[in-house]
Structure prediction request, 144 residues.
Amino acid sequence: MICITESGFSELVIQFIITRNNDELGELTVSKIAHKLRISPSHLYHLFQSEKGVPPGKFLIMIKMLRAAMLLEQQDVPPIKKVSKKMGFSSTNYFIKIFKEYFGTTPGKYREYIRNKSWTFETLAQIDPIRYIQKGETEVENIV
Prediction:
């Protein structure tokens, strides 16, 4: 049983999120995380928010966006609609909107940009998502 009053609870949640494969991540929601950890979604929200200063849902979206970026870097690039669905978005247009909020460009333009630049997901992986979200940055180039 998990002791949810211990410091570091948010680290457990982060590890749970980032260790999911893409298919599992796409289906993951804050409610599903809470259910798995046997706590209420509101309690999960409170603990994560108080430890990290960021809502767990916003963190989850950030990880999904980073994974989407990673998928878009593959040699055999899947269509954007497929990446959108894999990350759990029912609307490709909404996925594109959220992706643009995080990266300052559309997934299609990002894919083109990656092909012509030297940095890759490994560069993006060095980003501290919590710091990135807290700063309110909207473009990867602002922190890379």
Observations:
- Confidence is low (pLDDT under 50) at residues 137-144.
- The chain has one domain: 9-139.
